[in-house]
Specification:
Blueprint (H helix, E strand, L loop, with lengths): L11 H5 L29 H12 L3 H7 L1 E4 L15 E4 L12 E2 H15 L12 E4 L8 E2 L7 H7 L2 H16 L5 E2 L23 H16 L16 E5 L13 E2 L3 H8 L1 H8 L4 E4 L3 E2 L2 E2 L4 H11 L5 E3 L17 H6 L4 E2 L4 H14 L4 H18 L17 H14 L1 E5 L11 E5 L6 H5 L22 H11 L3 E4 L11 E7 L21 H11 L4 E6 L7 H5 L3 E4 L8 H7 L72 E4 L2 E2 L4 E6 L2 E3 L6 E2 L5 E7 L6 E7 L3 E6 L6 H5 L2 E11 L6 E4 L2 E4 L1 H5 L6 E7 H6 L11 E5 L4 E11 L8
Parallel strand pairs: 1-2, 1-13, 2-4, 3-5, 4-6, 7-9, 8-10, 9-12, 15-16, 15-17, 17-18, 18-19
Antiparallel strand pairs: 10-11, 14-19, 20-21, 20-33, 22-23, 22-27, 24-25, 25-26, 26-33, 27-32, 28-31, 28-33, 29-30, 29-32
Length: 828
């Protein structure tokens, strides 16, 4: 596209970047006049611009480049700031505070923030003081902090359709973030989901761009406060970040970090409204997406970042990258990417690559590969936001740890739970449950904070959490028991549905296990394909003549027709967060069975009739939902849901096993176990076996409570144990800092090298095994990035795990799989 005719519509800063389109860029043409207009209020004013200009006049090129870099707490320490003047730090989803456990309360986070701030403030001759800006994924409350309120995920809030509530949620999140010394919340997520198989569907408010836009404005205002009251921190607010720009909710097949192939007009109509509303509300930062548009990576897309966002939409804040996503741009690595800066990225999130990125970017600025005009534009934007966020000034709420998880904040979250519940079925008026009844509470989700809070809760995937990690929270079981006993009834918890005294009603709470990002991508929308254990529980209770209420916990609408049929009432509760009592507020009535609160939630996502209705969006061709967008019963409704078809419309498909290879001592489909030595290879069955050359023998062993069963391998010569199968792309997992986990027991200490491998690359485990006591089950996690650094091409891996050793080695293995790096991944 000829860009010259559009220069007049761009800001001066955007026009500077027009000459920076690299020759390699193969991005589709962008026509800014097709896009909606917006304007950043409150970011630019004469006083702020003068302050920033004076500060920049005293900055060296090293200090300017430092402002463009963001490092993760797992790889940086306060002392590093003496050599590297980085502009920002973050704590990724699995990153703990400094010198603290993975799950830590507010005091540890406060101490971390203050330690970095103190280091940044150290006097250095000729170097001006520029505070860091500290960001976290406070996507449903300040959910990395033990004791903080965790709100329902966005999909549930969309069902509430209450912008004023969203504004108050933003205010609470800001207060609980500012109280622990953090300046910046990476929200709101304004994705508009078009394929519910996407693993981030729960981070979207709705399939409707209008709801997303209303909520974007409300949450930005709640997080940041009105521009007239800035600096934000002075008023107990923080900086926000609309994400992920642009179109991440519309990738083909719902693939995370995938490609959005929509025409430009559709991209603008469906995926831009949330950003327009956020910019108009004064959002200080925008986070770019991992995804692509028509094959061009967003982190390198000058047309959308500069011409549209900074030009047409008038965005005056700064654009920050996502976790090493710049490394996916053609020609880039995580440590070397001038293309991203030249396209319009202002700050790159380089969690573990920040040192190399700083050095290379500095050299590219000095050589002119990244023009100084582009650097100055980025630095000006970053400093402008730092001024408006208030990092140069007082922080009245810092240290107010009494605000974290306060009763007032929990009340807001409890209201959000009540308003988010959607009643899909209530045949026979089984709901509300009479408070004086005998109530059986069953199902795996009833007393499980993990299922209740979902991903991005104390850890990236939301896994591994225990009740002790939620000192201010209440499970759904806790809320139900409290409500029933207060009304004179009796409540019994029995996850498997067994009981000694027959109940009047059973409330079964079940649903998805927690997940985040690509770990949650699905092949179909069928819930529990194959072994439907939750369905069996519902049917067992129903067969005994007990009225059954199903409470379904999920991060998206799923095909649950059999489960709906097996229940008298069915409630979509989404992922309600820490205030499980909000579920009881609506389900449990008074002693006579009169409602205490009615259902208010309406579907903000259409509910599928079949498991193959992936792109089920109102207004699109072939729209035929089971429950349409906007559906939701109340206690005044008397309509019954007839028996539904139990044909999913697709062949039952197990969940994709891209990340599970060998579990419980067995290979997981489609993977197979292969043993090799110089004499050939064999695919062993469950019994004892030896390789053709006799160098490697295998037998079944008991792994106790680890995975129930394992395989013991004994080497009398050189041999390899491998998991093999179809080639899979693990580049996303590596970029997400996933690890290859091995649960093992050392049976005989190896006299020679032992390698744990992936693809063609093996890493020696000798040092780790030397410290392992024989006979004890242990776990090691090796970062996928280590294999990539070893030269492995992670885009086509046919052997995702193997172990190689020589004579004298003895090792038992219970599992080989991918797992998040919770600050415990190593590079042997």
């Amino acid at each position: 596209m000829a860009r010259g005719g559009l220069k007049g519509t761009l800001t001066a800063a955007a026009a500077v970047a027009l000459a920076l389109t690299p020759a390699w860029a193969a991005e589709p043409p962008v026509h800014p006049q097709l896009w909606p207009q917006a304007r950043s209020p409150g970011l630019v004013d004469a006083e702020t611009e003068a302050f920033v200009a004076e500060l920049m006049s005293r900055m060296s090129v090293e200090e300017k480049v430092g402002q463009l870099i963001q490092a993760d707490l797992s790889t940086i320490r306060p002392a590093d700031l003496r050599e590297y003047p980085v502009g920002s730090i973050l704590a990724g989803g699995d990153t703990p505070p400094l010198d603290a456990p993975d799950r830590s309360p507010g005091q540890a986070w406060l101490a971390t923030a203050q330690a970095f701030r103190k280091a940044a403030a150290e006097a250095r001759p000729g170097r001006p003081y520029i505070p860091l800006i500290f960001g976290v994924d406070a996507v449903h409350g300040n959910s990395q902090v033990v004791g903080a309120v965790v709100f329902p995920h966005n999909i549930g809030l969309g069902a509430a359709n209450d912008p004023d509530l969203i504004r108050r949620i933003g205010e609470v999140t800001a207060q609980e973030t500012a109280a622990v010394g953090i300046d910046w919340a990476f929200g709101p997520t304004v994705a508009v989901v078009r394929d519910d198989r996407w693993g981030r569907t729960y981070e979207s408010y709705s399939e409707d761009p209008e709801i997303v836009a209303r909520y974007a404005e409300a949450l930005v205002t709640g997080l940041q406060g009105p521009p007239s009251a800035w600096p934000a921190l002075r008023g107990g607010h923080v900086a926000g970040s609309a994400k992920h720009f642009l179109g991440d909710g519309g990738t083909e097949n719902g693939r995370d970090q995938g490609d959005n192939t929509a025409a430009e007009a559709e991209l603008a109509r469906i995926h831009a409204p949330g950003y327009v509303a956020a910019v108009d509300a004064g959002v200080m930062t925008v986070m770019a997406s991992f995804s692509s548009w028509q094959g061009a990576k967003m982190h390198g897309h000058r047309g959308l970042l500069t011409d549209v966002l900074k030009g047409r939409m008038g965005f005056d804040g700064f654009v920050v990258g996502d976790w090493n996503a710049h490394g996916q741009i053609p020609g880039c690595t995580t440590e070397n990417c001038p293309q991203a800066f030249n396209a319009g990225m202002d700050m790159l999130m380089a969690p573990d690559s920040w040192k190399g990125l700083y050095r290379n970017t500095l050299a590219q600025v000095r050589s002119g590969e990244i023009p100084m005009a582009r650097v100055d534009d980025a630095v000006r934007r970053i400093l402008r936001v730092k001024v408006k966020a208030g990092v140069f000034g007082p922080r009245p709420l810092e240290g107010r740890l009494d605000l974290v998880g306060s009763a007032e904040h929990r009340a807001v979250a409890r209201q959000a739970v009540r308003e988010s519940l959607v009643l899909l079925k209530n045949n026979g008026g089984v709901l509300p449950v009479r408070g004086s009844a005998r109530v059986l509470v069953a199902g795996g989700g009833a007393d499980d904070f993990g299922k209740q809070t979902g991903g991005w809760t104390l850890s990236w995937q939301g896994t591994g959490n225990t009740p002790a990690d939620f000192p201010n929270g209440q499970t759904i079981w806790g809320g139900l028991r409290e409500a029933v006993e207060a009304a004179g009834g009796q409540a019994e918890l029995s996850p498997d549905g067994r009981f000694t005294v027959r109940p009047d009603v059973a409330i079964v709470v079940f649903g998805e296990d927690p997940y985040a990002e690509f770990q949650g991508d699905r092949p179909t929308l069928e819930y529990q394909p194959g072994a439907k254990t939750d369905l069996a529980l519902l049917r067992k209770l129903k067969a005994q003549g007990i009225p059954v209420v199903a409470v379904f916990l999920s991060g998206r609408p799923l095909w649950v027709n059999p489960e709906i049929n097996a229940a008298d009432a069915f409630v979509a509760a989404w992922q309600p967060g820490t205030e499980g009592g909000g579920v009881a507020d609506v389900l449990i009535g008074d002693r006579q069975g009169r409602p205490r609160h009615d259902f208010r939630g309406k579907l903000s996502f259409s509910w599928p009739r079949r498991a193959d209705q992936y792109r089920l969006n109102r207004g699109e061709p072939g729209y035929d939902p089971l429950f349409a967008y906007g559906y939701g019963l109340t206690y005044r409704d008397r309509a019954s849901v007839p028996r539904l078809s139990e044909d999913p419309g697709v062949a039952t498909a197990p969940a994709a096993n891209v990340d599970r290879y060998f579990v419980g001592g067995r290979a997981v489909e489609p993977w197979r176990l292969v043993l090799r030595d110089a004499g050939g290879e064999i695919a062993p069955g469950p019994s004892a076996v030896a390789t053709p050359g006799g160098a490697l023998a295998m037998q079944l062993v008991d792994a106790g409570g680890v995975q129930g069963a394992g395989r013991a391998f004994a080497w009398t010569g050189e041999g390899r144990v491998a998991v093999a199968g179809p080639a899979v792309d693990l580049s996303r997992q590596a970029n997400g800092d996933m690890t290859l986990l091995m649960t093992y027991r050392l049976d005989r200490r190896p006299p020679g090298p032992v390698r744990l491998g992936l693809g063609r690359t093996g890493l020696r485990l000798d040092g780790l095994l030397a410290a392992a006591p024989p006979g004890e089950w242990r776990t090691v996690k090796v970062r996928l990035a280590c294999f990539r650094q070893g030269g492995e091409d992670l885009t086509a891996v046919a052997q995702p795990a193997w172990i190689e050793a020589g004579a004298g080695a003895g090792l038992s293995v219970a599992e080989l799989r991918l797992a998040p790096n919770q600050n415990d991944g190593v590079c042997p």
